[in-house]
Amino acid sequence: MEKKRGKLPLPPKATDGATLSVRVQPSAGKNELVEIRDEIVKIRINAPPVDGKANRECIKFLAKVLGVASSQVSITGGEKGRSKVIRIAGLDQDSCWQRLRLSLSGR
User: Fold this and answer.
1) Judging by DSSP bridges, how do beta strands 40-44 and 17-25 pair with one another?
2) What is the pLDDT of residues 67-97, one digit of tens each?
3) In which element (H, E) is residue 93 found?
4) What are the structural domains, with CATH classification, of the chain?
5) Whole-prediction pTM value?
6) Closest residue by Cα to residue 43 from 64, 56, 62
7) How far apart, in whole angstroms, are the C-alpha atoms of residue 76 and residue 74?
8) Closest Cα partner for 88 from 100, 98, 73?
């Protein structure tokens, strides 16, 4: 069966936090926010995709970028793939996008 490639599904609207569609490139030279396109956040992560290392590093990196504790960030979908749905507790959707764009523009 052929895999369909294209747009990631947009996450559902969260009522008590923010939810993001994230595309992760593991084993990169450094952790960085690459771009935001079509409401999909693209990031590069230094850790390899082995034993959950890239997932843990993704959570730590996004927490740092968003200015929240790592415990507030969780992967709710796509744990074994590059396309993930990330949940940020305690941060509303608008603030989340604002912080990501500010971080991206401040490179």
Assistant:
1) parallel
2) 999 999 999 999 999 999 999 999 999 999 9
3) helix 93-105
4) 17-105 (3.30.1200.10)
5) 0.84
6) 62
7) 6
8) 73
